Amino acid sequence: MAEATPHDPAEVGDASAGVDATAASPPGDPPSFFGHVIVVALASGFFALIWFIVYTALDSSIWDNELVESYWWLPPLIIMALSLAVGLAVRYLHAPTSMDGSLLDEMTGDPTSIRWRRLPVTVLQATISLLAGAVVGPEGALGRFAGMIAEWYSERVHVPTVLRGRLVFAAASAAYNGLLANPLFTAVLGVDVARKSSSVWSALPSNLLGGAIGFAIFHSLGSTGIDDFFELEAAPGMTPLDMLWAVPWALVGMILAILGALSMRVVQAAFGRLADRPVARALVAGTVLSVVSLAAPILLFSGEHEIEEIVADPGAYGFWILLALAAAKLVLLAISLKSGFMGGPTFPVIFSATCVALAANILLPGLPLVYIEAGILAGALMTLFRTPLMVILLTAFFLGADAELVALITVSVVTVIAVLPVVESRLKAASA
């Protein structure tokens, strides 16, 4: 769940790009290296925890108070002020954005290119972006934080360059595994992204150790992450025939993610006219978000809390409104990312996939919602990330899946693996 943007639908993604930073490492690390892993994982895990607590407190103080709820004009005013701050941070502080790059750039790229001195402005930019109501997730900043912490430490204690890539990944493991409350998540992700490199097995111990430390930090405070997030009713007695439902729903999820990628392309072209005007770019996006705050405030922010309200009573929205919410969320995600706000796409995509699943369940009330949700969510995430093992684990963890539902999720992922290259080649040929 590192910072990412949906893959271009005209290009087959390669999630292993950039892993060569550790490819030259010797088969096995000196025992002292694991001491470095422990230190960096503790630092990254506690940093992520403290940042998340501070951000949550700020978010609550700004948005969960009677004053803001009483005056309709206050939310747009707050959004515009924070959007201006985002633009000014980019213009004058050279704050990083999520406009470019792809999955795991901060975790698998060249660690010596990480500019750790930009950590304060990166924290500022990520926090303001989230508070402004931008449709981005908090996971997008954690990879950057972890990479900067690991590289700062590596320079201070002179960790060999050949080992720094693994140290960055271990630091990110601590942050992400803590946030998700899953001790295996980033290790599985590491296997996915390094599957074409022999370094995967030598990096695995440090990823596991870092992830376990991050998990322990958050777990000690009672964090349960997103385990069984929606608490959907389990489907009784899945049959092998029921697993076939994974195929059409996975295709729906794949189409949803491709539409998200297309919206990224369109929005990027539109904002390209403001490439050298970061303040104007952020204010245009802020204007859009301000209008949304008046017309449909449930579409603001990353969506992990807002979607719970929709799941609780999907009938209050109806089929067409649910589809409209799913589409609008993807467009707002593209606008947020391409205008200079910092964040990740994971939770907004989950929001859209869930809205589509709820709409489908209105048409097919006899089919367990959990089947639909599992297929669409796995299909969308697989199209977005191209990391099959991580997607299976994340979807299963998100839905509190039993062994039968994991099988359906696996079929969904395999469906996308088989179909997506064909679809992308057709789209590429059509756009040529």
- Would you identify the regions where 5 or more consecutive residues have pLDDT less than 50? 2-6, 8-27
The shape is globular
Order of helices and strands: HHHHHHHHHHHHHHHHH
Helical residues, percent: 55-70%
Largest sheet: none
The portion of residues forming beta strands comes to under 5%
Taking all residues together, what is the mean pLDDT? 83
Gap from first CA to last CA: 32 Å
Structural class: mainly alpha
What's the total count of β strands?
0
Number of helical segments with 4 or more residues = 17
* Radius of gyration (Å): 21 Å
Summarize the structure in short:
This protein has helices at residues 31-63, 66-70, 74-93, 105-108, 119-131, 139-157, 161-180, 185-193, 199-219, 246-271, 278-295, 306-312, 319-338, 346-363, 369-385, 388-399, 403-431. It has 432 residues and is an all-alpha fold. Mean pLDDT is 83; it is low at 2-6 and 8-27.
